[in-house]
Amino acid sequence: MDVDSELTRVWEMGCMSQARPNSMNKEGVLLEECGYYEGLLDPLLDKYLKPIAAQLYPDYGGATLDHHRSFTVKYHEDGDVELAYHYDDSEVTLNVCLGEQFEGGELLFGSMRDCASQ
């Protein structure tokens, strides 16, 4: 079963996390609660993300990544519809789009100087 199908099943069953995925979104699934850490996300971190981060950010601890907080956010008309300009408090952020049909969904990157003026 693919991740998108599994998350759709979780949403339909009403098994959403009681904890919010982050401080800005109301609806989401903490992927640890779905059992995705050991078989999918921990290996993704160790085998792919850590080596890439080590090459890109050798002076900023890229080789020392040792944990993650992985979650999904559900956007829809009656719930979360957007995410305000912000910065992530993390060494590395990986965004993956799991949707198939939608409008919008732009992902914009700015500098920390830009965030201070927002």
Descriptive notes:
With 118 residues, the chain is mainly alpha-helical. It has helices at 3-13, 36-56, 112-116; strands at 28-30, 71-73. Strands 1-2 form a two-stranded antiparallel ribbon. The protein is globular and about 45 Å long.
Average pLDDT, rounded to a whole number, is: 80
Strand order of the largest sheet: 1-2
Structure annotation, total helices: 3
N- to C-terminal separation? 41 Å
Q: Residue share in helices?
A: 25-40%
| Beta-strand percent range | 5-15%
Radius of gyration: 16 Å
Going by helix content, strand content and strand pairing, the class is mainly alpha
The major beta sheet can be summarized as: 2 strands, antiparallel
Number of strands: 2
Which regions are unreliable across 5 or more consecutive residues at pLDDT < 50?
none
Principal-axis shape equals globular
Structure in a nutshell:
The chain has helices at residues 3-13, 36-56, 112-116, and strands at residues 28-30, 71-73. The protein is mainly alpha-helical and 118 residues long.
Give short descriptive properties of this protein.
globular, 3 helices, mainly alpha, two-stranded antiparallel sheet, 118 residues
SSE blueprint and pairings:
Elements (H helix, E strand, L loop, with lengths): L2 H11 L14 E3 L5 H21 L14 E3 L38 H5 L2
Antiparallel strand pairs: 1-2
